[in-house]
Structure formats: structure tokens, C-alpha cells
Amino acid sequence: MVDRRNHHLFQPLLYQVATGDLSPANIAAPLRYLLRKQTNCTTIMAEVVDFDIEGRKVILRDGDLPYDYLVVAAGATHSYFGNDHWEPFAPGLKTIEGATEIRSRVLKAFEVAERETDPAERAAWLTFVIVGAGPTGTELAGALSEISNHTLLHDFRNINPADARIILIEAGPHALGHYPKSLCEKAEKSLRELDVELQTETMAIDITEDHVMTKRKGEETEIRIPTHTVIWAAGVAASPLAKKIAAATGATTGRAGHIEVGGDLTIKGHPEIMAIGDMAMFLGPDEKPLPGLAPVAMQQGDFVGARISALTQRRPFEKTFNYKDRGSMAVIGRFRAVALVGTKQISGFTAWMIWLVIHLMEITLFSSRILVVLQWGGSFFLRNRSARLITSETVVLNNRAAATERAA
Amino acid sequence: MVDRRNHHLFQPLLYQVATGDLSPANIAAPLRYLLRKQTNCTTIMAEVVDFDIEGRKVILRDGDLPYDYLVVAAGATHSYFGNDHWEPFAPGLKTIEGATEIRSRVLKAFEVAERETDPAERAAWLTFVIVGAGPTGTELAGALSEISNHTLLHDFRNINPADARIILIEAGPHALGHYPKSLCEKAEKSLRELDVELQTETMAIDITEDHVMTKRKGEETEIRIPTHTVIWAAGVAASPLAKKIAAATGATTGRAGHIEVGGDLTIKGHPEIMAIGDMAMFLGPDEKPLPGLAPVAMQQGDFVGARISALTQRRPFEKTFNYKDRGSMAVIGRFRAVALVGTKQISGFTAWMIWLVIHLMEITLFSSRILVVLQWGGSFFLRNRSARLITSETVVLNNRAAATERAA
Q: Is pTM, for the whole model, over 0.90?
């Protein structure tokens, strides 16, 4: 097991680190701790930079590693659709560092607003724009609404945190667009109740230090939203390692760089190389790629484990991977969620309870279930977020002041 | 209340963040949350850079703030005794970022050792040097011993974490040298039982990327300790703001830059300016400066609060600050501590229980007491540390590899 991080991250709850509900350690656990009882497994913290397919070696930044079978599961990162210069102004939510950076920016924005005397500038500091209304963007928008309307309500003297605008921009026609329309509408109703301004069929066409330019589908007018806090929850691209594998094996990659795998999850012409999870493109029976969800990756992990076990024991293995969709869900705020189990649509408090129970069960590996229950209890019922820390190497309070200094 | 951070930090437990026992949010709470019910107090997140004593203004990085009374309590930072170039190789423990940096370095050292094939290099990665055997250094050494002898014991395949050497260097004749000799000896016995190598009357004369040079008092020979992980717990210096105040008021400063204050904690000739806590030098009845401890700062805070309250209401205030020493303590490891209450010396399990109860009572402001009990329960009894995360912007695994790259 090679990873450039020492920890496994439970990404579905990463947004709760960004919003100060949970601490990083609640949703991440050291890989070698998780694997400590599996004595035939060695965990190595190292960065994979390339592959020597001929020589059957993984090239590390500081060495290499021979293999008989190779499973590549390097996941996905966010994509700015060719606008990588937006990244400094619109961090994404894929790593612990990204989550604590977003947490710091959101809290800092309220701090700067408290001191800002110009009403327009103050409003800009109190405007939060989230690009992309998939599950991550929707969950973040709901949590930001809770923060401004409840958590911070009595902490400031010059501003009313409830004046904060939370704008959720979505290029498609609906929030949570991959759900059936009636569930989307329920989610959108929840967002409205939480005072989130959802702007559908709207694209971000430019992001800078002090504004986002948007354009509605079919309209010519560009609209300028003054803001200093933008969160990117839109594009996803496969890990750059997918391209390296593709270049070395001649495999095809999809639109977002995902590497195409066959029915047994191997790469064409290379039965010894398997790719799984968010970086792989597996076409289901309907010729549609499977979604980038944790259950897909977990089931694929089981599959390749069984395959390697069979092959190393010289047993035949002729199965084809078959994804069992047990449902999916998204949480929008306190007591609000939507869930799709088979064709059954669930929303509101029931969906939220299901979400809670499932995530509590899943998180056991990472942290004490009791700790998370208590921490959640604190933030759900007392509406207090315990992990409201602004941390960074250099505390830059006012972006403009810092920019002026740099210019001078 | 002006602070460049948004949070108040409970420094006595900072070493537990460095050792992965607690998460930062367990020991830090947003200032404006702590002060939310004090409606006559405004909290500002800003960096103070200087003072305009004549104009009675605090100069911020991005503005200024007029005052009638000024209380300066900017604390202390670590001092490398003129060897600031040691800092990159020997981070200190004063901030959350310092603590997570030390946590990352310690965990990374075990990761690199696991992959290192050269026995000498592997030993160097498994050598941890702590400079300074005051409370912080002693607590850290004890906790590192727990980590290597218990927490990580079953997690590696190529190394035995218990082979780690933990070296504690102290220039004075004893660990915890400010305690009575018999307590020092008990603490030193505890350290020996934990396999910590205590080297007293020993100075660090050079610290680099791959070694520490030491010299014993009265000896000529310099000893080279190959190591990649050094933690600085030796020198303390007052915040640079003490010098600014001194320059502007003509006040005298002590050896480590502490600013001298009178019996009413004001600065000579300036009854409107008070300095308290770790940056102030208050001479007790025995002409000795008070130690840099939290209880001193807290009692001084109460004193200046009462003084300002009296003066603003035009009541007379003629008191002199008088420190009530209720005792002090240091924890060395699981079930091991020393405490001094008046002239009463307590050690072992009793002292540890007292330490636990006092710190649990103090921490209520910062985090749920139950959360901390459970987290401590986990690490004390299950010997598992839940916050074992390596986080940083760039994951540099092998310092040497990175250095080679830089050189190339």
C-alpha cells in the first residue's frame, strides 16, 4: 500500500471540517493503523510519480517498487476546466488542507467584515459564493447558512452575521441534478428555507480576488458578484497518474482524464494492472460510466482483492464487476436531507436520520463513534461549532492590505 | 480585545497536540465566542505592530486604534539564544501550527525510517532530540516515549518503533530544575523508566538538518548526535512588542526582553499602560521576577481589570499586585507527574490524578470536557492516539531527496 499521505480520509464528511463541525482527526485515520493487523501488507508513505510498465515497477519520487499485480486507485482532484488561475481565489474541497483553508477563509471573512467600515466592501466580505451544486456544494451551502444564521449570531458587535449572502451557482438546471426531479425540488426548497440563493443554469466565467463574474445560460449580460470568499465544488478530474498509465499502456481516457477499464477492472492488454475508484472509468451495462462515489470504489476494491487472491493461488477468475447500487444521499442542513434508495425517494427528517446513522457507522474506523456523536450533538443541538479555528503560517487579515504591501 | 489570532490557546496542553493525543480544536476556542456575552467588549482580529504612546494609539498593520487605557499581554515566543538559523531544524512549541508541525515531523520520521535501508541512517531517523528539560521538554519526552514504545508498536513491518532513542538535553543540572531537588529526582527516575536518555549539564552548540552537536559542561569534546528530528523547548523571549513599548516609554527590559512593570503592573511614568503575563517582568517581594506561568497571567488579568474598572469610575485604586502561588506541576507520562503545592511535594499517580482533574476543569472553556475525557481515555487506556495526522502543503518525505532536488 503506497500513499503520499499517512492517512485515509473519509471524504463524505470533509465539508464538516471546512465548516468547523469536526476536527480533521475525526475523519482521518493513519493508513498503517488501519492495516496494522493485516500482517501480509506493508504500508509505505511515498509519492508515486510514474510507472515502468515493461519493467513492472512503480516509480516513486525517491526510488522504485517492483510489482506482480498493480492496483491504481489514486482518486480524483478538482478541475477548473482550464482556468487553473482561479484556484488561489476558489479553493476546492478534496484534502484536509483544503478543508482547513476553506474554514480559515470563511471565518476570516466575518472577521474582516466586522472591521470594515465601507458598506459595499463589508457586503462583499459577507458574500460567499459556492460554484457547483452537487452534493459537496449543496452540503457546504447548507452548513454556511447554519453558521451565519445561528453559530456566529451573537459573536459580533458591528455586523449581523445573518446578513451574509450564500450564493450557490450551478451550470445545470437543478441542485443535486443527478437525483430525480422531485427530489431536486425538495432539496431546492430546503436551500431556500436556509436562505441560500441558488442560481441555476448559471456559469462562473471569471473568478478574481474580489469578485465572481457569472452569466446565465442563453443570456448575454454578465453579472458581477463582489465577494472575497469563493469555494470551488464544480469540476472533477482524475488523478494525473491516470494519464501516466494511459500513456504507458495505450489505454483510452475519458473526458475528465479517467482511465478506461474492462469488465474485470483491468487495463486493456494488461491483465496485471487494475484501476479502480474515482480515477477509473467503468462502463456499466447501460454504457454509462459509474459515478465517482465511495460505494463504487469500495466494491471495486473488494473485487480486485478477490481477483488477485484467486490469480496468485492459480485459481480461475472469470467474473465481471457488477456495481450494486444501494442508494445515495445528500444532506442539506440540520434535519434536512434527500436520499434515493432504489427507486424510493426519501427526504426531510427521515432522510437526515438515515444519513446520520449510515455516516456514524462508516466513521468508526476513523474516530471514536462517541466522540463524533458528541461533537455533532454540540453543533446540531447547541448550534455551536467547536472547531472554529483560523490557522495558517502567516495570518493575513486583509487581502487588500497584503496586496498593497506586495505592490509597494 | 485585539489579537492576530482568532482563538485563545490553552498552552499547557499544546504538547498533546504535538503528540497526537488531542486535536487543535480541543485546546483552542474562538476569542469572540469566549467573550460573546460580555457586551461591552469588542473583539478585533488584527496584528499590532507598534504603539503611538503620545497619541495614545495602537498601530495595527492595517489601521490604528485609540485608547484611554492600554493592557499589553502579547506573551512570549521561543528564543534560540542568537542562533535563529536553528529554527528550521528545531521547531518550538508555542502555537497550533508549531504543534502540528512537530506532530508531522515525528510521524514522518518513523515513516522514513520504515523505508530506510542504511542502518546508520535508519537510526538517525529514529533519534529524537529535545532541547530543554523544563516542563514542556519533559512532557514531550515522556509522550514521545509512549508513542514509540506503545502507540506505534504494531504498525510497522521493517522497524521496531521501540528502538527509537529519545534524548532530552538540559543545560542545567536537573530536569524540571525549578522544582525542589527531591522532586527533580523523582521526575528523572520517571524519565529513565520511560527509556528517555536525559543528558544534563549539556548544551546544544549546533543544530543542522542531520545532527545536533552537544558539549558537556567543563568538557572539551563535542559529541555529534545524528538525528533529523529536533524539538526546541529551551529558550523563551518576550514578544517583540515588549521592545516597542520599552523604546517608546523608556522602560527597562530584562534579559529575555521582558518589560519591567511596577507594583500596580503599570509601566514607569505611564499609569495608563499596563503589561501582564509572559511579556512582563514583575519583581516579587524577594526581587525575583515571577515565572512565566498561566496562573501569574490570570491573576494579573484580574488585577488590571479591577484597576481599570476603579479608575474609569474615578474610584481610588492603591493596591499592589501580589501573586498567590497555588502550586505548579508537570506531567511526565501515563500515571506519572510531579506537583508542588506550597511546600508539599507530590509525585507519581497522585500527582497525575491532580494534574488530570485540574486540566479537565481548566479546559471547559475550550472544548467539551466529555470529548477530552474520551479522547484522553482512548490514548491513556487503549494507548491509541487518534490525531496521528501528517498534514502540510507539500508532502516532503525524505529530506535528503528534497535537498538533492534543490541542489540539482
A: no
